[in-house]
Amino acid sequence: MIKKGFWKSSGALFLLILMIEPSHASEFREVAFETDDGGTIFGNLYGEGSHAVVLAHGRAFNKESWQEQALEMRNQGLQVLAIDFRGYGKSKPGKKGKTLELDVLAAIDYLKGEGAERVSLLGASMGGGAV
Fold first, then answer.
1. Which of 5, 29, 77, 123 is deepest in the core (most CB within 10 A)?
2. How far apart are alpha carbons 75 and 77 in whole angstroms?
3. What is the DSSP letter of 21?
4. Which of 22, 94, 29, 23 is nearest to 63 (CA)?
5. pLDDT tens-digit map of 111-128
């Protein structure tokens, strides 16, 4: 407890520094878009630019698994979209079931709508097959 007048009478100077964890939400924005078969895909969009990259996760992972790589790519000037495949996170399947390539194609279309002129694809395990 601080006594009344403590700051004035002590003659001491105090500096309070708050260490705040960076908010991951400010590093990307969550986006959603539809697939050709009516599915809904959610992704984390990092940065902006004419060259974009789609990051497609493996079976045991999700879009957040790519965060470290996505931030590095964004810092190199790329627009990066890490997606959750249908059935992962908030993403919902469409009429054709587990056709993951439709999720990747929808991600490419979304990025083109965001100004990407060139889109590269990177997939791990199951995501590699979809890519």
1. 123
2. 5
3. P
4. 29
5. 999 999 999 999 999 999
66: CATH: 3.40.50.1820
Quote the Cα angle for 120-94-91, to 5°: 65
Amino acid 107 reads A
Number of Cβ atoms within 10 Å of the Cβ of 121: 16
Q: Indicate the pTM of the whole model.
A: 0.81
Domain assignment of residue 74, yes or no: yes
CA angle at 59 for the pair 109 and 120, rounded to the nearest 5°:
30
Domain tally for the chain? 1
Please classify residue 114 by burial: count the beta carbons closer than 10 Å to its beta carbon, then call 0-12 exposed, 13-18 middle and 19+ buried.
middle
| 110: Cα within 13 Å, side-chain hemisphere | 27
